[in-house]
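Quarterly update from the structural biology core.
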Amino acid sequence: MGANGAVSGGKEVAKNTVRAISILGNSARDQMGAFSAPLIRSMKGWVNVLIHSDGKRFFTKINGKTIYLSVESVANHIKNFKGYADESIRLISCLAGKCPNGLAQQLADKLGKGVKVRATTGYPDRFPRDRALKVVDEAGKIIKNSWKNFIGR
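Predicted structure, tokenized:
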């Protein structure tokens, strides 16, 4: 990814492992999300991945234009990301966990790893005081719901 101005970044920590991967667009809001992704507290053995989804497809927005991304291209980007250590994914993506055989399951299958995702639409809290992952609506109100787990088949 990263082509056409897409924001694709991550933060490496000890032993050159990455804690967050952002596959977002180039709008100011997306760049803020890419900036804050590494600030979200990571879970041992999991990598936070931020990407847009409408529940049916992953996408990014470049210069106001929506570009759809296949599950395979997202999986390949994650696998090839410098510092990714073949870990499970904590997917921060609207509606990606909505369907039992939807995007989260397809990504788990392509990666052969577990994927943990929320089923709601929301945005990562850009500056969480405790660095815990909180998902908020457009007004900044915290959305509470449980995580769904998908296992690669």
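Confidence is low (pLDDT under 50) at residues 1-16.
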